[in-house]
Write a structure and sequence with these properties.
Number of helices: 7
Bound molecules: flavin mononucleotide
Order of helices and strands: HHHEHEHEHEH
CATH superfamily of one domain: NADH Oxidase
Distance between the termini: 48 Å
CATH class of one domain: Alpha Beta
Structural class: alpha+beta
Strand order of the largest sheet: 1-2-4-3
CATH architecture of one domain: 3-Layer(aba) Sandwich
CATH topology of one domain: NADH Oxidase
Length: 217
């Protein structure tokens, strides 16, 4: 955990970071509180396999806002993802301003559905990955860290009855300018309530996907 907090960054209200000591368990406990103890709904879908099997990307969102407790869970879920060496080689930019969301729409090839109630931009932060490996490996690790975190948030959003669209098509340099960072953005996760719930998309047969490697003679 970095002890120094970047005071030049703007944080959405309620998400301002606090300085923690290295052995302060409150970070982990705060995370667990967000996930486990905050308000929940009876109809919450907590069967992880059902969440996976029913998740469907959405590009038509209602303008209904997302409850703060759900946003907390989505963010906390990202922080439960595994990361290389547990160095958490990624950052999340929580876009709270509507003009910034519109700028991100433009930077993403005018994909208008980027402008959702909750927009998160996941970025690589390889400088956090303090492993003695070649730079190429460190880059790969932080790319995977950022991607996994976004995937965890996406599943959490589905479990909370929300829908999302993962955005990978954008002008990286423009996004860096918009959110004010040198870090490489890997994906946006745009979340909201779907106008219509649709069934999950088809996939290829599992047996086509899985390649069993057997012992060579
Ligand atoms: C790496 C990646 C990049 C993607 N980029 C975009 C994108 O820029 N715009 C978009 O509309 N959807 C994007 N998607 C969403 C996919 O089109 C969608 O996940 C896919 O069609 C499967 O549908 P499903 O999520 O409902 O299963 C992306 C998904 C991934 C994983």
């Amino acid at each position: 955990m970095d002890k120094k907090i970047d005071t030049t960054r703007a944080w959405p209200k309620g998400y301002e970071p606090v300085e923690e000591s290295d052995n302060d368990l409150s970070v982990r406990l705060g995370l667990m509180t967000s996930i486990l103890n905050k308000k929940t709904e009876k109809k919450l879908n907590t069967d992880i396999f059902k969440v996976m099997a029913t998740r469907r990307s959405t590009r038509k969102f209602s303008t209904n806002p997302i409850e703060k407790w759900k946003i907390d869970k989505i963010l906390a879920a990202a922080d439960t993802a595994p990361t290389a060496g547990n160095f958490q080689g990624f950052e999340i930019f929580y876009i709270s301003d509507k003009d910034t969301k519109e700028e991100l729409v433009k930077a993403a090839n005018n994909q208008s559905y980027v402008n959702t109630p909750l927009v998160l931009v996941f970025c690589m932060n390889p400088s956090r990955v303090k492993l003695d490996f070649p730079a190429k490996v460190i880059m790969k690790f932080s790319m995977q860290d950022a991607t996994l975190a976004a995937a965890y948030s996406q599943l959490a959003a589905s479990a909370l009855g929300l829908s999302s669209i993962w955005i990978g098509m954008f002008d990286e340099d423009r996004v860096k300018e918009i959110i004010g960072t040198d870090l490489r953005p890997t994906s946006f996760l745009c979340v909201g309530y779907p106008i219509k719930k649709r069934p999950a998309k088809q996939r290829r047969q599992l047996k086509e996907l899985i390649h069993v490697v057997e012992k060579k003679d």
